Amino acid sequence: MAWTTPPTFADTPSAAPTAADFNALVNDVIELSAASAEVNPPFASVYTEDGDVGENDANWFIRHTHRYLHWSATIIAGSTADFNVYFNGVAVYTDATNRATSYVYEGYVDLNDTGVIATTPTIGDWYKIHLDIEEDSASLALLVGYIVESPETSL
Amino acid sequence: MLPFATGEFLSAHKLNSISRNVYHIEGLIGGVAVPFGGIVTLGDITSAADVQWYIRHKYRYLHFHIEIYNLDTLEDATIYYGGTSVFFEGSDENNLANVTIDLNDTGIITPTPTVGDWYAITMDIDIDGGTPGTDKIHVNRIYESDVTSPTVGSSGASYSAPKIWAHGDYPTAAEMNKYSASLNYLYDRVGGGSINPAVMSNRSEHAWNASTGNESGMFLFHKHRYLHYINSDSNAEISDPSNVGDDVSLGSTGSWDVYDLDQIDWMTPGKIYYVKFATACAEDTTP
Fold first, then answer.
1. Which fold has domain B39-145?
2. Touching check for B221 and chain A: CB below 8 Å?
3. I want to staple A53 with a disulfide (CB 3.0 to 4.6 A). Which of A15, A133, B91, B217 is the partner?
4. pLDDT confidence tier of residue A79, bands split at 50, 70 and 90
5. Is A129 in contact with A84 (CB distance < 8 Å)?
6. In A17-76, where does DSSP find H-type helix?
C-alpha cells in the first residue's frame, strides 16, 4: 500500500461516504503508523570548558517538522557576556545580558514568525542551528542540554 | 484495523479504531524533533578514533551529507560500514552532498545487513590545502531511508483531533474531514520516504562529567518502549533531570543491550530523561 490523499467528505446524499472512502483512511493510517515508528535518537548534549562557543564548536541539523525551536543551556561555571542562537547563519535570538553560574538559558523561537526568520522554513527541509556564546570570565563552562523542535511552546 | 465493506453497518467501534490510531500516530510524529547528532571538526576525521555513528538497520538506502569549508582540496574521503569501506572519493570536492549507498548491493555490502541489527558507520576524511585551523568538516546527517530521495507532503493542513464516536452518532462531513485533515498534516511531516537516523556515539564533550557531576549525556524525549544502548564501561544509568524519579542502572553484555522502559514508573510519554555513561543509545518500538 502507498499513501493516497484522503477523501474530502460532504454533507450531501450523493456524496455519502463509501467503503472505499473509509478504507482510504484506514490505508493511510497504516501507512503513517509505519513511518511514525522510527528510531527515537537522543540529543547528544554538549559540555564545554573551552570558553567562547561558536560555529566551529558545534552545529545541529534539523529536518524541519514543527513550528517552535526550543533550547536549553546551563552555565556550569564562570559567566557569559551574551548568548545567541543562529538559524542558517542568521541570529534569531540574542540575550546580551551578562549571566552568572547556574543561569539556564531556556527559550524558543517561532519558526513561522517571518519577523525573525526571513523565510519560514519548508517542512522537510534541513537547516542548521549553531550557538554563539561569549564568555565574560575565562572560566566559562557550559552545558547545551538540548535543541529540539516541537509543535508546542512548552515541552 | 479491519477494512470496511460496502453494505456493512457503520459502527462507532470501527470509526473509533481509526480515531484512536490517528491519536497514537500524532503522539509519535507530533512529539519533539531532535536534530541529527552531527559534528564539526577543524581537521581530519580519522575513523572511530574521532567519532562513529550507529544505525539500527531498517531500510535499503544509506544517505549521508558532509560539507567541507575553507579549504582548497579534499584529499580523500572513505566511509566505512561496520569496518568495511563502502564509499571512496579521491578527487577534489568541496562537499559530499546527498550521497546514497545501496545496502542491498552485495557488490559493496556483503552480506546484506539484517533488519534490526545495529551497525557502525565510521569515516576517514583527509583534507589538503586551505588554511590550518580554519578548515572545517561538517558531518550534517547520516540516515537510512526506503527511498533514494525522501520527500514530504505539502498540504499545509492542520491537525484536528478526530471524534470519538458513540452509538447513534451521525458521521457528518465536518467530523469526517477531521480524519482527512489530520492525516494530511501527519503525512506532511513524514512524507514519502522514511528517515531512520544514525545515532552518534558518545564523545568526550557529550559524556557525563563524573568529576564535576555536570548533567551532560544523552537527552531523550520518551517516545518508544525499548531503550537500546551500549554500556561499554558497565556504569550506564537512566536519570530523571527533575531529580524526582530514582536512577536506574543498566546492565551490560558488552554490545547492544535493550531495556524495557515500561519498568520505570516515572517514565511517561514525552518525559525528558537522560542516559549517563552510555556509549550510544536510542529508543525503538521493538526490542
1. Jelly Rolls (2.60.120)
2. yes
3. A133
4. very high
5. no
6. 19-35
